[in-house]
Amino acid sequence: MSGLLKRALYEDEPPSIILATPSSSFDSSYEWINVSPDVKKLADFNRTFTGYIVSHTRMFRSIGLEHLTSSHVVIEIGSSYGVASNLMAKKAKMVVGVETSKECIEKARKDFAQVTNLRFELMDILLMPKQAAEIVKYSLTNKPADDLIVFLDIGGDRDVTSLLSTIAFIERSLTPRIIVVKSLKLCRTHPRVKNQPTVDIYSTEEKENVCSVRHFVHPLKYPEKLSLRSGRMICRYENYDLKGCFKHRDPFNLGGGTCELDHEECHACGELGHRARECKHEESRRLR
């Protein structure tokens, strides 16, 4: 399992979700550290990993600037026009901004062309995780991994499951010393519980589902499979897209036609009654 999500739930304070790396017992391995009225962090006693999840940009940037030193390498995922990346480049050894918008990348490269320790890369970490990892390895040449800090702000339109899986991928593949995540949606997703210092917000089964996802793949990247039961190809959109096959689920036929593929059979294990996204079969874990 790549990571656990714990939440600091304090009656008089804004909610914060804390990302932590499990070692043995939660209570004996970690301690709460009060950073500010807005943010709590959870760190293990060995200080090998610390995670923050906050809901607004001000605290997102504040935490970043507070922890940066001249020895740090920074990866900012969701760098937009590069304003925050430029501020961090004034303190860090190297900053790499990663963004999905071509317009943002072009403007950032133009505006900050004179900043020698700052560069921008156009990619979607959800679709190109291996390339993202290669960028980090290039930036960390001859540097220890604990000098890496990752900032993640991939926008409010991403679903929570995708965001959690992205965090798990970053922790597992990039092994940062610190990760800072800005997500209002993630902060508001889970209910508050009064008088409880920590609450495990995911069951063991749900954690395994999130953390077993190797990386995100477009539905059509999966191999075609024929359903022997129906004699039709199994719909990959129905199995791997978060909302399923649009044409199949569209009652008003707004998609311009119906999907003739098989929507009943799991693409991963071939059984009926569930999609590959929810499949518990070992083969599905390998595929994902």
Structural account:
The protein is an alpha/beta fold. The protein has helices spanning 26-29, 57-67, 83-89, 102-111, 129-139, 160-173, 184-189, 204-211, 236-240, 246-249, 282-287; strands at 4-8, 16-20, 30-34, 40-44, 50-54, 73-77, 94-99, 118-122, 148-152, 178-182, 198-200. It has two domains: 4-211, 3-Layer(aba) Sandwich (Rossmann fold); 217-288, no CATH class. 30% of the residues lie in helices and 19% in strands. The strands form two sheets. The chain has an eight-stranded mixed beta sheet with strand order 3-4-5-10-9-6-7-8, sandwiched between helices. A three-stranded antiparallel beta sheet has the order 2-1-11, with no helix packed on it. Keywords: Metal-binding, Zinc, Zinc-finger. Residues 266-280 form the CCHC-type domain. This is CCHC-type domain-containing protein.
The spatial strand order of the largest sheet comes to 3-4-5-10-9-6-7-8
Low-confidence stretches: 1-47, 190-215, 282-288
How widely separated are the two ends? 14 Å
Number of domains: 2
CATH topology of the largest domain: Rossmann fold
Portion of residues within helices: 25-40%
Strand content: 15-25%
CATH class of the largest domain: Alpha Beta
Q: Over the alpha carbons, how many angstroms does the gyration radius reach? A: 21 Å
Structural class: alpha/beta
Query: Architecture of the largest domain in CATH?
Result: 3-Layer(aba) Sandwich
Helix segment tally:
11
Question: What is the overall silhouette?
Answer: elongated
Report the order of strands and helices.
EEHEEEHEHEHEHEHEHEHHHH
